[in-house]
Amino acid sequence: MKNAVVLLSGGLDSSTTLALAKERGYATYCMSFDYGQKQLIELKSARKVKNSIAPEAGHKIVKIDLKTFGNSAITDNIDVPKNRSEKEILSKIPITYVPARNTIFLSYALAYAEVLQANDIFIGANILDYSGYPDCRPAYIEAFNIMANLATSRAVGGEKIKIHTPLIQLNKAQIIEEGLRLGIDYSMTLSCYNPDENGYSCGECDACILRLQAFKELGKDAPIKYISHK
Questions:
Q1: Which residues form the signal peptide (predicted)?
Q2: In 3D, which of 13, 6, 7 has the Cα closest to residue 127?
Q3: Binding-site residue ranges
């Protein structure tokens, strides 16, 4: 089996990505980050997801401090936007964007891949039903992939690196359908930008709204706990 690094936040997208990597026959090595996010409880979801989908997989939780830079509702003392329409959500880059986060995470994954002698890295980026993040676009992924093959000893030695984005062209409903096909229990996942200390999702942030809409589109109840439904 070929080794692959999978970026795993514990959310819907990354969990589905892990299941797809495993289905494709990779030996998966998960990487999660404690980066100063206010929703640190998401790491509990990441552990649950890893243990359910790929119990044999490795799992590194890397501690870094993006809170130092701030300027994001995820890491700074800034309110998370609530109850926005889909048009508002998709209109511009929101304050929940964490500066350069995917670039930083992928760089760590690239270093880990070199150590594992892995040529493959999986990330759950997608360009449909997302909150306008510039580091989720295909052009960005392609550019990082070029850089990865210029910057690593493994690639220079002839082992080309591939950044996999299996969800890049799927909307949230399609992602959920894929996950259900793979048997994912989405009650373990956490996508909310503003959960409480017990892990209940707010039901009002952009991530919750897009997730709730997707399950509604599929005619299914969202299988997680929301603050408004306690």
A1: none
A2: 13
A3: 8-18, 192, 202, 205, 208
Among the residues of the chain, which ranges form H helices? 12-23, 42-53, 86-89, 101-116, 138-151, 153-156, 172-181, 206-217
**pLDDT, average across residues 179-191:** 97
pLDDT of residue 229: 52
DSSP state of 226: B
DSSP three-state, residue 201: strand
Q: Which residues are annotated as a binding site for Zn(2+)?
A: 192, 202, 205, 208
Cα(230)–Cα(223) distance, integer angstroms: 13
Q: Which residues are annotated as a binding site for ATP?
A: 8-18
pLDDT, one tens digit per residue, over 145-155 is 999 999 999 99
Q: 184-210: string of b/e by CB count within 10 Å (b at 16+)? A: bebebbbbbbbbeeeebbbbbbbbbbb
Three-state secondary structure call for residue 143: helix
From the list 218, 213, 228, 199, the residue with the least C-alpha distance to 47 is 199
Compute the CA torsion angle 147, 148, 150, 151 (nearest 10 deg): 110
Domains of the chain, CATH where assigned: 2-184 (3.40.50.620)
Task: Tell me phi and psi for residue 108, to 5 degrees.
Answer: -65, -45
pLDDT at residue 230 greater than cutoff 50: no
Mean pLDDT of the 121-146 span: 89
